[in-house]
Amino acid sequence: MKALSIPDLERIYDLLAEAIDAVPEGEVPRFLTKLALLAANEIGDAERFAGLLDSARRDL
Amino acid sequence: MHQPEAQPRASLYFDYRVHPAWLPSAHEVEEEVQVAIVGGGPIGLALALDLARHGVRCVLLEAERQVSEGSRAIVFTRRSMEILHQLGVAGRVAAKGLPWRYGNSYYRGRRVFRMAVPHDADQRFLPMTNLQQPYLERYLAEALGQSPHAELRWGNRVSAIAQDEDGVRLTVETPAGDYALRAQWVAAADGARSTLRQLLGLKMEGTAYEGRFVIADIRAELDLPTERLAFFDPPWNPGNTVLMHREPDGIWRVDYQLPPGETAEEALAPAALRSRIDAALALVGAAGQQWELDWCSVYSARAMTLPDYLHGRVAFVGDAAHLLPIFGVRGANTGFQDAHDLAWKLALELRGCAGPGLLPSYSQERVAAAREIIDEAGKSTRFMTPPSPGYRLLRDAVLSLALSEEFVRPLLHWRTSRAHDYAASALNCVGDDDALFEAGPGHGAPCTDLRLGGDAFLLDHLGPAFQLLYFGAGPTPEVLACMASFRQRGVPLRLLLVERSGVNGAVEADQILPDSEGRLRQHFGVTVDGAAYLLRPDQHVCARWLTLSADRLEAALNAALGHSNRSFTS
Asked: For residue B258, what pLDDT is reported?
């Protein structure tokens, strides 16, 4: 698995924050769900996706 | 006193006829009948015809004096048509019905998915045929009227049941008083609110979903092909789904989910119906279209089954046995397969040919099928009527993605009723060569059709019997002797010879199927002379061999008759 470079991580941080702000209020959950499905399709591995869900659930 | 409606039901397109009630006073008291079927819907009628085809004397008791009100089941699958073909009514259904194979899903005014159900020239029937249930019931009832073995008693309602080791006693109410009917076996085909299920105190297992739907039939002139139309999340019914199907006689089925909290009464109020049907018509580009209402009803999506379809001498079929969501046309289409599975087993039981496992295999095979259907239906239902905020969010995300992303579109795939494979059935042969075949229908699968030329098809040649399909000049004298011994015991068994050109069979067969181009061999995955298939009377494969001997055939027939003591694994 490739780790993101620090500059890429910083860029993604900004992109995601600005994208969430730009989505009409109330559409954020659907937007993020679409994003998760698109990312899952890029990952192409249901087991890895399940692991990512676990990571995301932690310490909410 | 039972007083069924004596006035014909109202309909814009169907000419209801009220039949005279069957009254005990007008008939001689009879001794026991072999099978009493309770409920004259499509499944009860199909079962009666199927039993009669096997020579079983049966009586069908229908509480009403006319066929069902409203279109109800309107989509019949290819497998249902194949079963109806064996019962002799598929021709009338096909002549009146509308065949089709495309399903379309729309979201925000755009078609996001178009599914073509596979079809080729080797099939007699298209994947789906639309016809209103009253027509189908009429065709089945009229066919039953031609049968010397079956009798349809209109206006006869069962009110009590008692059974002992030898048979069942039904109390039957008529407009002229009650009578008792004694039967060796009873089939409960009395529908979703089955009286027999309640009288026997049986409980179904499964889920009742919260979603409730209006189904409305309207007469409207719409210039659209016969295809399935599904509209997700329309602006006038946010979050919900609207389905439309074309029916014969200029009738359209409109099916939509109710907003949460709305009662059936509110939903069926004329003003509510009018505005929603107007809105549904606007979805297909027919805003302002004139229409008339024929029939409407409210139903809820349920996915439930009895855990066992046999209770003493009572066998449950169709909606009396299971309640399935209608999105995948699983109601009647599942019921026909129940009836077709039960009929031959009951016939052989009555003839004294059945082993101890034959009738139980009906319940095993069909409960397993119902559970598979429930599992599949659950997936459709979670998409059509999301049960929680999470499912709703995912469904909406997928619809939104489907406008641009190919990879999510299969999630909109419309899972439909299919012919079930009884791959784990205890009736399948253990020591045959099933695993050595690389093609063709395997253990438990229904034999698929093949065009033999012109309007002649393979399935036309299969009768109400076991069929040994032999590829080559003919089986050995030992195999023929084995067949004769089963026939002597009353087991219906036919020999079909598939002949290559140049091979001249000296054997007397019930049917010769010429195969000069090798298409039948290819269809069955047969590469060597001397291979054979054994098909059950319901056309499902129970054994196949690369080489056949009398011992192997005997073992397969014994297993298929329920003499094997292997346990059922699923």
From this structure: 87
Q: Measured between alpha carbons, how far is B154 from B198 in angstroms, rounded to an integer? A: 22
Together in a domain, B214 and B261:
yes
How far apart CA B421 and CA B400 sit, in angstroms, is 36
- N- to C-terminal Cα separation, chain B: 46
**Pair of tokens at residue B227:** 């295809």
For chain B, the average pLDDT equals 93
B398/A30 CB distance under 8 A: no
Mutate to test the interface with A, among B393, B406, B411, B412 (most CBs of A within 10 A): B393
Q: What is the DSSP letter of B562?
A: T
Structure token digits, residue B52: 């009669």
Q: Check whether residue B323 and residue B459 sit in a common domain.
A: no
**Closest chain A residue to the Cα of B389, Cα to Cα:** A29
Q: What is the pLDDT of residue B415?
A: 73
Can you give the pLDDT at residue B449? Answer: 95
Is the same domain home to B269 and B397?
no
Cβ contact A37–B396 (<8 Å): no
CA distance B123 to B83: 14
CA B321 to CA B192: how far, in whole Å? 8
Q: What is the tens place of the pLDDT at every residue in A11-52?
A: 999 999 999 999 998 999 999 999 999 999 999 999 999 999
Tokens standing for A33? 């769900």
Tell me the backbone φ, ψ of residue B414, rounded to 5 degrees: -95, 105
Residue B52 near residue B101 (C-beta atoms within 8 A)? no
Is-contact B244 B254, C-beta < 8 A?
A: yes
Q: How many residues does chain A have?
A: 60
For residue B525, give the nearest of B438, B458, B459, B421 by alpha carbon.
B438
The secondary element (H helix, E strand) that includes residue B544 is strand B541-545
Domain that holds residue B313: 24-99+116-205+303-368
Selected residue of A31, A35, A37 to mutate for chain B interface (largest B Cβ count, 10 A): A37
Give me the interface pTM, i.e. the ipTM: 0.94
The C-alpha atoms of residue B550 and residue B532 are separated, in whole angstroms, by: 12
The CA-based dihedral angle spanning residues B305, B307, B313, B316, taken in that order and rounded to the nearest 10 degrees: 10
Report the alpha-carbon distance of residue B216 to residue B535 in Å, rounded.
Answer: 42
Integer Cα distance of B36 and B50 in angstroms = 13
Q: Are residues B438 and B556 in the same domain?
A: yes
Query: In the structure encoding, which two tokens stand for residue B407, read together?
Result: 């990879």
Contact B499, B505 (CB under 8 A): yes
Domain termination residue (choose one: B256, B283, B302): B302
Based on the domain organization, do B403 and B465 belong to the same domain? no
SS (H, E, C) B286-350: CCCCCCEEEEEEEEEEEEEECCCCEECCEEECHHHCEECCHHHCCHHHHHHHHHHHHHHHHHHHH
φ, ψ of residue B397 in degrees (nearest 5): -65, -40
Cβ–Cβ under 8 Å, residues B9 and B1: no
Does residue B522 sit in helix, strand or coil? helix
Chain B residues in contact with A38 by the CB 8 A cut-off are 401, 405
- At B45, give phi and psi (nearest 5°): -65, -45
Helix/strand/coil (H/E/C) assignment for every residue in A1-60: CCCCCHHHHHHHHHHHHHHHHHCCCCCHHHHHHHHHHHHHHHHCCHHHHHHHHHHHHCCC
**Could you write out the three-class secondary structure of B235-262?**
CCCCCCEEEEEEECCCEEEEEEECCCCC
Label residues B392-430 b or e (16+ Cβ within 10 Å = b).
bbbbbbbbbbbeeeeebbebbebebbbbbbbeebbbbbe
